[in-house]
Amino acid sequence: MSIFSMIPTIMMVVAPILITAVGGMICERSGVVNVALEGLMSIGACAAACVACKVQAAGAGAGSVWIAVLVAMVISGVVSLVHAVAAIDLKANQTISGTGINLIADGLTIFTCQALFGMDRTDAIPHKMVTDKLGFYPSFYIAIFIVVLSWFVLFKTPFGMHLRACGEHPAAADSVGINVRLIRYIGVFVSGLLGGLAGACAVMTQTIQFTSTLIGGRGFIALAAVAFGRWRPLGVFLASLLFGASQALAVLLSGSSIPSEVFNIIPYAITLLALIVFSGRDYAPRAAGIPYTKSSS
Fold first, then answer.
1. How far apart (Å, rounded) are the C-alpha atoms in residues 98 and 82?
2. Nearest to 32 by CA among 128, 212, 193, 166
3. Which of 154, 226, 269, 279 might form a disulfide with 24, Cβ 3.0–4.6 angstroms?
4. pLDDT digits (tens, 9 = 90+) for 49-60
């Protein structure tokens, strides 16, 4: 198997990680840390699979895939607002709030599958995303578009400047009339939308049904890609490519003489290495994870 023939499969695995990581980057740029990316991906994947199975069983065609993707985005976006309320309005610890959503997602997705299908997974999806002539799924092109769009919005628009200001100096942003609370809500909601989109892309390309082990830590890998990519679109893209490629290679080379476990540990080993290399360096948005209280003066 040549390296070129592996590229479509590698990008199939990379795309959901990259989409989720961009959402996490935007969220943290606004000043809110979102460790719930894993749970948001899982909820999105479950929602997309459930909608696709039920709608297609009723006679809908392959076009219903995009209806399922849209529903997944909306549901994950709404769930992310729970984290927004806790982190922004209630000033709760953002790590604990995000972890709570991850735990809820585990139970919620299994309960939904039990209620709709009578088992802890969905039925097989009749119609999924299809590849183009080059072997790439639409998720690949969606991921690239989202990276470019995030760069443009963050660094070429007034809204992007406002969002970055809220993550760096919220008090200064507030003093010039920027609504810090609204901007941070938007950042969290966007991370929810993209988490749901990523989950839907994963279940619509990499498997035939949703299971509780489908996401398998990729939300946490996306979170690591945000830090490893220094909170910048290009860096996040390269980090996601590295992490995702190592996961894809574990599958592609499972029959080789090299144990697949070697490739499975690479993303986590790189994460630990990044923490060591970048320790003490201030790349993160200065106000990320710090609740902001509007001054009364």
1. 9
2. 166
3. 226
4. 999 999 988 887
Nearest to 189 by CA among 289, 73, 86: 73
> Is the CB of residue 146 less than 8 Å from the CB of residue 158?
no
pLDDT tens profile 133-142: 999 999 999 9
Domains belonging to the chain, first-starting first, are 3-277 (1.10.3470)
Q: Which pTM does this prediction carry?
A: 0.94
The Cα 48–Cα 72 span in angstroms is 5
| Look-up of token digits 């574990």 | 250
The Cα–Cα gap between 122 and 230 comes to: 37
* Euclidean distance between CA atoms 193 and 140, whole angstroms: 17
CA triple 274-271-155, angle to 5 deg: 70
Q: CB–CB of 24/167 below 8 Å?
A: no
